Amino acid sequence: MVGFWIVAMLAGGVAAARVPDRLSADFSVPGQEGSDTQAGLARAYGIDGGAASVPVLTAPDGRRLERAEVAGVAAAIRALPGRQVLDYGSTGDQRFLTDDGRSTFLLVFAPPAQGPSLAPTVTAAALPRGLDATVISYQQLVAGDADPDEGAGVLAETLIGAAGALIVLLFVFASFLAFVPLLIAAVSILSTFLAVLVLTTVTEVSGVVQFLIALIGLGVAIDYSLLVVSRWREERARGGSGDDAVVTAMVTAGRAVLASGITVAVSLVALVAVNVPLVRSMGLGGLLIPLISTLVVLTLLPALLSLAGPRVDWPRLRKEKHASAAWLAWTRGVIRYRWIAAGSAVAALTIAIVPLSGLQIGSSGSGSLASSGAAHDTLASLRAGGVGNGVLTPVTLLVAPGGDAQALADAAGSVDGVRMAIRLEPAASGATAVVVVPDHETVDNTSVAVVTAVREVTGDLPGYAGVTGPGAQVIDFQRAVYDKLPYVIALIALVVFVLLVRAFRSLLLPLKAVVLNLASVAAAFGIATWFWQDGNGSQAVFGIAGTGAMTFWLPVLIFAFLFGLSMDYEVFILDRMREEYERTGSTAYAVEHGLGRTGRLVTSAALILFFAFAALGSAPQTDIKILATALGVGILLDATVVRALLVPAMVSLLGTYNWWLPAGIARILRVEPSPLKPDVELPATARRLVRPQNAH
Q1: Band of the pLDDT at 63, cuts 50, 70, 90?
Q2: Could you tell me whether strands 418-423 and 361-362 are parallel, antiparallel, or unpaired per DSSP bridges?
Q3: Range 390-416 burial, b when 16+ CB lie within 10 A, else e
Q4: Sign of dihedral through CA atoms 682, 683, 686, 690?
Q5: pLDDT tens-digit profile of 372-431?
Q6: Are the beta carbons of 447 and 419 closer than 8 angstroms?
Q7: What's the rounded Cα separation, in Å, for the pair 97 and 32?
Q8: Other CB atoms closer than 10 Å to residue 155's CB: what's the count?
Q9: Is residue 441 classed as helix, strand or coil in its secondary structure?
Q10: Could you say which residues form the signal peptide (predicted)?
């Protein structure tokens, strides 16, 4: 077993260097109008209708731009391969000018695989005439507002996360055993890269996946290892010798790891089922993380513990024979004041969830770029001159051969909120594109009404073939993903509920776990909405203004990972509580010693994941920062307010009903029933004297 994973790790090291070059960023939504129209534009013109570059020319103070000099710049741009240009010089349309006539914008469409940069061409053409020139675009201002080559990089971020994890592991184990989970994580991460390299040969995989593998893989593998190694030490402290302690740890903690890994995988299956290449590839890549981590922990880790565990568990400054005194005291307090504890936790979650009502789905607005720089100043000057930021997100209307392109342009131009609608020259196929410039950028579900209105007024006219652009992309994702998301969430919750019923042999524990998990995820979304979308702290912490919306792929990815990762902690805690209850028959003892044994582990595991996400947050891309902070805050919130406060309070309140599984349901699920029986009330002194037997 050790030899197999050594080979996999070495091959994974080679694969990790090759995977980044094989990743892609496909934002198409097959079967939706925006994506289908974009495919039609690519066939007719060879351009990307959703990505316009906007050169802005400005004359010196005291004079207006001349049409001829704008035409010269436009001609230089048209000389570049595959460019389509709309401008004041070729049309004479005054709406391309600012109110004072000093500045103008050009709309430039390029092939989907972007050709040479416009900046050198524009500069060379403009400077001889004394004009200032700046090229801006929506992609530059928002999606590409940071240099992807800047930042720590995936390897450096992983090392930063590993360093934080090592600090926590040294605190937990106080021995060289702290390095074992890191070794397991290294094997898991590199093996996952190997699997992803194979995956890229059969399907496209998003570039985000490399960050997920490195950082989430680090946290998941260490968390699973932490649980098993801690239980192994506990069994050795009770007198277990040799491989008996390993077997007992795998029978108990290993079972919890298996249940957790399956739960995380189930939550990610939802992404695989979505017919959106970007989201589906994230689901496929993400799915490999818990599956391979679980496989490594269940196979390599017991082999390592058997071969070298006792030798590396030195100097053993921390003992594991008894539950943590601090966590026992905390849990006794929660049990004593369980109504207050439950009420406080529910109030905290409610406050965190409230901002979720204002969540907007789409893309970050141009206002989320830094408040200085040439691009910012140029866009500000356009707005001051009466040109809205809608020039960054034009709506491109495709007219089929034989259609009346001018009639469609006139209809689109009459829509409220549209600045202008102007035709490109017909393509060789006879199709024609009409570019519609809205007054305001169309980037989220509150600003795409103008796109819907353009579709409505032109959809019944002869030759209408569809609309594309950033706003259309938002609508596509809304229809393809978010209209069905409630059903997907319900299905995931049902499947996880059934799996946990079998694992815990209980009805109420799994129901509580699913409900609290959904509440925990909702709270994390609420905090992310308040911090990032509404800008309450994003500027101060990251220097990024409020985004105005969550990028359309972020919520579904955050939900899938956070739901699965949060359920890990629920499984760890409840599995131990169930074990303690079956030995004693006392709910109070089960809660007290279940959390007493797992509280430090869950908190440490959450800190490890938090360090991993903090490292991920150093990535230059805003979307990756949002993903990292949402997951990091969500994990901490879940491990503290939910698992350390609300879970023990609710289990204490529900009493013997926690453990009930009727015979009929047990028979269907092929597990042993758990009938209702009186709860054993152990005196406090007796609870402290009860000693667990060898679980094996």
Answers
A1: confident
A2: unpaired
A3: bbbbbbbbbbbeebebebbbebbbebe
A4: positive
A5: 567 778 888 999 999 989 999 999 999 999 999 999 999 999 999 999 999 999 999 999
A6: no
A7: 35
A8: 11
A9: coil
A10: none
For 155-196, the pLDDT digits (tens) are: 787 888 889 999 999 988 889 999 999 999 999 999 999 999
Confidence of residue 119 (pLDDT cuts 50, 70, 90): low
Confidence of residue 623 (pLDDT cuts 50, 70, 90): confident
Please count the other Cβ atoms lying within 10 Å of the Cβ belonging to residue 564.
Answer: 26
> For residues 44 and 37, what is the distance between their CA atoms, to the nearest angstrom?
10
From CA 570, how far away is CA 262, in angstroms rounded?
Answer: 13
Phi (first) and psi of residue 688, to 5 degrees: -75, -25
Q: What residue type is 217 in one-letter code? A: G
Burial letters 436-465, b for 16+ CB under 10 A, else e: bbbbebbbbbebbebbebbbebbeebebbb
Q: Tell which residue, 564, 587, 605, has the closest CA to residue 651.
A: 587
Q: Where are the beta strands (DSSP E) in 106-173?
A: 107-109, 132-137
Q: What is the pTM of this model?
A: 0.84
Residue 674 main-chain phi, psi, to 5 deg: -135, 90
Q: Which of 195, 212, 181, 209 is nearest to 292 (CA)?
A: 195
Place of tokens 């609309």: 467
Residues 6+ apart with CB under 8 A from 677: 585, 656
